[in-house]
Structure formats: C-alpha cells, structure tokens
Design a protein that fits this description.
Pathway: Cofactor biosynthesis; NAD(+) biosynthesis; quinolinate from L-kynurenine: step 2/3; Amino-acid degradation; L-kynurenine degradation; L-alanine and anthranilate from L-kynurenine: step 1/1
GO cellular component, one term: cytoplasm
Keywords: Hydrolase, Pyridine nucleotide biosynthesis, Pyridoxal phosphate
Distance between the termini: 37 Å
Strand order of the largest sheet: 6-12-11-10-9-7-8
CATH architecture of the largest domain: 3-Layer(aba) Sandwich
Protein name: Kynureninase
Bound molecules: pyridoxal-5'-phosphate, (2S)-2-amino-4-(2-amino-3-hydroxyphenyl)-4-oxobutanoic acid
Number of helices: 15
Number of strands: 17
Number of domains: 2
Helix content: 25-40%
Enzyme class: hydrolase
CATH superfamily of the largest domain: Type I PLP-dependent aspartate aminotransferase-like (Major domain)
C-alpha cells in the first residue's frame, strides 16, 4: 500500500469516480502534467474532429459549410456547452475571441450601463491582461474613469456608491485564492455596481454558479481547464437581464441582427450574439467543441472533491519533503481554486529540473512554482510521485545546474 500523507493512495484511486476519464486524453508517457491550468492537454477526440472538419467539411463543402455544417452558429453551440459548466442560463454564453478582448467588450458594455459612475474596481491579484485592458479602455474613453486596484482581501470593503464595475478574476493565477463570487456580486449590486467575473482559472476546474451568484458578465479561457488547445477561443457571458440593453463596443458584422443583409448601419443582434465581432475560427471552435464533450457526463462536484483531495495530498507531501518551499494562499479550500503554489528562492531552476524529470508545472515571477490539478486525468499516485520527484530534486540540489537557470521566452 503506497502511503501519502497517511492516505491509502491506491484505494483513493481505485474508488475515484473520475478515473476512467484519463483515457479521454493523450498524455505523453512519463509525463505528470500539472499545467492544465495554463494549457490543457490534448483530448483524444480533438485530432479526428479537426481532421474531419478539414477534410470533409472544409474540403468538400467549401463555402457551403457555413450552412451545411452550421459553422455560423458554432460560437453559440460551443458556448452552450461551456454554459453548463459555469452555471449559466441557456443562450447566455458565446465562444469567441480571446479572454482579453472579451473582457474589453464586457467592461465597455458594463460602463455604459453605469454612465454616472467612474470607478472600475479590481484587485492586485488579477491577471495583468485584465488590468491592462481596463487601462486601455479607460484611456480610450477619456471620460475620467479610474481603475482602482486594491488588495484582494480589501475588495469587499472597497465597493461603494462610486464604483461602476467590480472586475475580478475568481481564482488568483498565482496564489490560487478564490473570491466569494456570490458575496461580492451581492455587495456590488447593493451598492448599485455591476460585477464582471474572469473565470479563466475556474471554468472546468470547479463548480461555478453564475446564475446563482447573479453575476452580470463573465469571460474565460478555452485553452486552460477546458482543453481547447493553444489559443482556443475564449467565452463570454451576459446575464439575461442585460441582454437587451448592452451596447457592444466592437460592433462587428457577426454581432449584427442581420449580417447578410449587408446594411450600412449597425443594428445589434438579439441576445448574447451581439457580443460576437468577426468570422468565427471554425477549426479552433471545432477543437474546443470536441474537447468540451469530455465534460458531457462529468459532475463538477465530483471534480471539485477530487481536486481538493489531490491538492491536499500534494501540499502535505511537498511540505514534508521540501521545507524550502513555502505554500502560498489560503489553507482553507473554500477559498481556493484547483492549483497549488509555493514560493521558493530557486523556483525557476527548480521548475526546469522538474520538467526535465517529466513533472510539468510552471514558474511565475518573482519566485512562484505553480502546479495545476485537473481531476479528469490525474491520479493520487501521479501526485504522490510528483512530490517524490520534487523532494529528490531539492534534496540533491539537482536544480543547481547552469542549464536550468537559462530563462525561456515564455514561462
Ligand atoms: C485570469 C486570466 N485572464 C486572462 C488570461 C489570458 O487571456 P488571453 O487568452 O486573452 O491571453 C489569462 C491567462 O493568460 C488569465 O489567467
Ligand atoms: N496564455 C498563455 C500563453 O499564450 C503562453 C503561456 C502561458 C499562457 C497562460 O495562459 C498563462 C496563464 N494565464 C497564467 O495563469 O499564468
């Protein structure tokens, strides 16, 4: 019996209701993949789907594919599959553009719904692109908006009647800290503000209930826990109550009420479709569509339970084996997402040494080693083995080699 943190790892894996899901993924032999929070691995269904769309749909149907294969409505169909995972009402999600661009769109739309207010409230744990997009929009609007960035724990107290929009990422990409979406959204509404949630590190990782929380807008990535592939289309949510009133800031023809009427004037489509902009990337959407099918029979509560079990095991094992690594973020799992980070002075070379031994996580400046836990393809045995390898590298100082210090362009 392999023991990890006093647990019977084999029994945990034997009783795991999600264990069969690993077969849905192509993960190279010898790899323990702990970076699905940055780029999900390849679902086996994706390559044949892409091959079919290329050869049969594009190859044979040519331009007729837009109708014959209903390519034109792929953003809504794929969005519908995402909706189930994030507790969104039917017809409220589209798969389109990138998360950065979608954030710009929903932020601009939200600010227009609060024309008398000037503050965009966010926190210092937000992913930089969200803050950058808000800065760009603020400067473009040139109407005296302020981006107010507070510490994550100060967000609730900072929501007041000056705030137009509370713009937050639910799970912090570095610490794994998770905001209480329902509480903060309710606070925003009681102050007359709107709430935008970035679900990049939530969608597919844990149960999300946008409808229950009353969120106004949400965005998120298709390439992380949803496994849609590098640069996969992102998603965008607009709550039903705003769908008739939002003005899309990027008024492209695919968000027009009648794109093929070729009117000279813009008229927004009904519903969330108005947040579309240009021609959908059919091949990328097909990949994301196939990847989402892996979730069709998955209970997100089971994903959450296993994620917590995997994270707990890893934290305990790393803390026991590598005292130089300092766990970051809250210990209480109600306030955590599905990734675990440690700060470590030699975090960068340590991560390269781990990757060399097949344990793939990532490094976030200045000193964070980060590991994502994706219950669909990871076992407790994988997690224990990853911690063992980490312990061996630390004990032998195997990270202290010139090759591991060389910085890559993309980390
Ligand atoms: C919270 C968050 N938002 C947005 C992004 C990225 O958005 P994009 O896909 O536009 O690069 C990331 C990661 O890259 C992220 O972690
Ligand atoms: N989007 C990425 C990319 O194009 C290259 C490398 C990493 C990424 C990421 O997604 C980073 C990620 N958002 C993070 O949490 O750090």
């Amino acid at each position: 019996m392999r023991q990890g943190a006093g647990l019977d790892v084999a029994a945990l894996d034997r009783d795991d209701p999600l264990r069969h899901k690993r077969e849905a993924f192509d993960i190279p032999d010898g790899v323990i993949y702990l970076d699905g929070n940055s780029l999900g691995p390849l679902p086996k269904a994706v390559a044949p789907r892409i091959a079919e769309v290329v050869a049969k749909e594009w190859g044979k149907s040519l331009i007729r594919g837009w109708n014959d294969h209903d390519w034109i409505d792929l953003p809504a169909r794929v969005g519908g599959k995402v909706a189930r995972l994030i507790g969104a009402e039917p017809g409220t999600v589209v798969a389109t553009d990138s998360t950065s661009v979608n954030l710009f769109k929903v932020l601009a739309a939200a600010l227009q719904l609060r024309p008398d207010r000037r503050v965009i409230l966010s926190d210092s744990g937000n992913f930089p692109t969200d803050l950058y997009m808000a800065q760009g929009l603020r400067d473009l609007l040139d109407r005296g908006h302020e981006l107010r960035v507070v510490a994550p724990e100060d967000v609730e107290a900072a929501i007041d009647e000056t705030v137009a929009v509370v713009m937050l990422t639910e799970v912090d990409y570095r610490t794994g800290r998770r905001h209480d979406m329902a509480t903060l959204t309710a606070k925003a509404h009681s102050a007359g503000s709107l709430a935008i949630w970035d679900l990049a590190h939530s969608a597919g990782a844990l149960p999300v209930d946008l409808q229950g929380a009353g969120a106004d807008f949400a965005v998120g990535c298709g390439y992380k826990y949803l496994n849609g592939g590098p640069g996969a289309p992102a998603f965008l949510y607009v709550a039903p109550k705003h769908q008739g009133s939002v003005t899309p800031p990027l008024s492209g023809w695919m968000g027009h009420a009648a794109p093929f009427a070729f009117d000279l004037d813009y008229r927004p489509a009904a519903g969330v479709d108005r947040m579309r902009v240009g021609t959908p990337p059919v091949l990328s959407l097909a990949a994301l569509d196939a990847a989402l099918d892996v979730f069709a029979d998955v209970d997100m509560e089971a994903v959450r339970a296993k994620s917590i079990s995997l994270c707990r095991l890893f934290i305990a094992e790393v803390e026991a084996r590598a005292p130089d690594l300092v766990f970051t973020g809250p210990h209480d799992f109600t306030g955590r997402g599905s990734q675990v980070s440690f700060s470590c002075a030699y975090g960068y070379p340590l991560m390269q040494a781990l990757i060399d031994r097949g344990v793939i996580g990532d490094f976030r400046a200045p000193d964070i080693v980060r590991f994502g836990f994706t219950p669909l393809y990871l076992s407790h045995a994988d997690v224990l083995r990853a911690a063992e390898i980490l312990g061996e590298i630390v004990a032998a100082k195997a990270w202290d080699q010139e090759k591991y210090h060389r910085r890559a362009k993309v980390t």
